[in-house]
Amino acid sequence: MDKQDHYRAILAEGHAVPTLLCGHCHSTLSRSRIFSNQGDARVNATCQTLAVCSADDCGALNCCDLALSQLENPEIIRQIAS
Known about the structure:
Blueprint: E1 7-8, E2 10-11, E3 20-21, E4 34-36, E5 49-52, E6 61-63, H1 65-69
Parallel strand pairs: 1-6
Antiparallel strand pairs: 2-3, 4-5, 5-6
């Protein structure tokens, strides 16, 4: 996968609950569509955590590593808004 095949997720600012936004259309990325890039779900990308945008007209693959690194506690991913 090259840089043209995916976008960088954005950590939304000013939200009480951590919220990741699609780097393409800025829709909220659903927690249920965020996955670890390993094992059977492995995608050929340098990202450890990926998300697929669920917006009807988007569907972009997002690398979430940079956005998640901005969280004080990386374990908070379980509390990401859906």
